[in-house]
Fold Mutator family transposase.
Amino acid sequence: MGGPRSTAVINTAVGKDTHVSENQPDPDGETAAARRLAEALDPSAIDALLADAKAAGTPIDGVDGLLNQMTKAVLERSLQTEMTHHLGYDRDDPAGHGTGNSRNGSSTKKVATTNGSVTISVPRDRNGEFEPQIVPKRARRIGQIDELVLSCYARGMSTRDIEAHLQEVYGVEASRELISNITDVVTDEIEIWRNRPVDEVYPIVYIDGIRIKVRDKAAVTIKSAHLVIGVDVEGRKHALGCWIAETEGAKFWHSVLTQLRNRGLRDILIACCDGLSGLPEAITSVFPDTVVQTCVVHVIRNAMRFVSYQDRKKIVKSMRTIYTAPTVEAAELALKDLDSEWGRQYPGVIDVWRRAWNDFIPFLDYPPELRRIVYTTNAIESINYQLRKITKTRGHFPSDEAAMKLLYLGLRNISSRRGGESGTGTHGWKTALNTLVVLFPGRLPL
């Protein structure tokens, strides 16, 4: 630990009482507390701290480092200030005689901070009425430890990995049970998110899913986590919800869409999806005026599963004439040409296109500026890609709730990087919006 000189300098830096008013900004935008801290820790004081730490062999950071000593000193000084405010008089002040309450020693407490674990002295009052705010009773973590755990968890780190990371980097001992409890705080937040109101109209909605492994009834099963992304009238994308299911079908999708309707959704102009079982029928049942559009990229990808490597470039070029055709009639001719050239060798390719045809052809009625937006569910697949990265490290989840917790934290983390609550924008949206006004008259809110 640092020598007496560094301790004295630290105590000098935090030796004055602070008050709530010091946190109020002055006309220049600087707080009084910030000015006093800058005055206390002028370059000469900092040089003295560093020189004394070096002479004593004390590291700058780490559990026994200089920063941790300063954290300890600041916390203990803050607690003493809180006690003074609670009692109404300073230590050894005669004004405290006869008040009915006084200081009653202190107790030690180990708390975890982002600088490492520190053991601090917490003052007590004789009546047991002191309720510290800086380090609340029963609190064992302060600062950003909880946020750090949630951030690591949202990026796919397992509880075992987070436990090791906190110990190695911050010297904080956190069991896997504790880490699980920290991440459980988002349970209520998830329910609020899943039941929050949504906009009345989304011009475009993307629906897709990822496969996850979940333990169910003593066996690990494959389930799908389905994500619904809505593009609002401003062109901003929002995750409307996530649903985990073992089987798909019209009944499941009808329930999902009914939930969205109960949350305020009244109309969808175009629903882009990937031929999920029962989904088109459910969409037209709940939102009868919605155009169901299959993802063109998914059709191409499914068709290419039947093609040998040496023929891929040629078939991709032939398929391009289908989805770039100016009209449905031109697309049908292009499909016939593809069939005549490759149908005998690759009948699976033609079968994929024919099965997707009815949900593909609405795409051909759109002008180029709108085709570019509904061409693919890449808007949602890029999110799914991020979610796959954080779920694949798990092997399997112990329950649907555990899977939803990670998926929600992942979505929250992605959202915070891509525009927050306002969502991310859509390139070329204004031109596409004007096209939607013409194609769907009277259905967009003014």
